[in-house]
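Tip: read the tokens left to right.
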């Protein structure tokens, strides 16, 4: 692609380096976001399991639904 444009070899190499750095940065950022997303899901699943056990011991109806609501930021209260 760069052969069709008449530029010096130094500028072509510089363009290739810049594009490579941008690509590697994009891949690294995507990987970090993926790892953070997986960690967040694991933490939420752990919270749901822990709270679900607590709601089961209190003999609540639908303990899993209440645990998901609580772990997603909802507030549960007993009337």
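Filled-in amino acids:
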């Amino acid at each position: 692609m760069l052969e069709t444009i008449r530029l010096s070899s130094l500028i072509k190499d510089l363009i290739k380096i810049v594009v490579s750095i941008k690509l590697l940065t994009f891949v690294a950022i995507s990987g970090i976001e993926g790892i953070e997303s997986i960690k967040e899901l694991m933490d939420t699943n752990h919270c749901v399991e822990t709270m679900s056990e607590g709601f089961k011991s209190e003999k609540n109806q639908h303990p899993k639904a209440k645990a998901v609501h609580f772990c997603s930021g909802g507030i549960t209260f007993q009337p």
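The first helix runs from residue 9 to 57. DSSP finds two helices and no strands in the chain.
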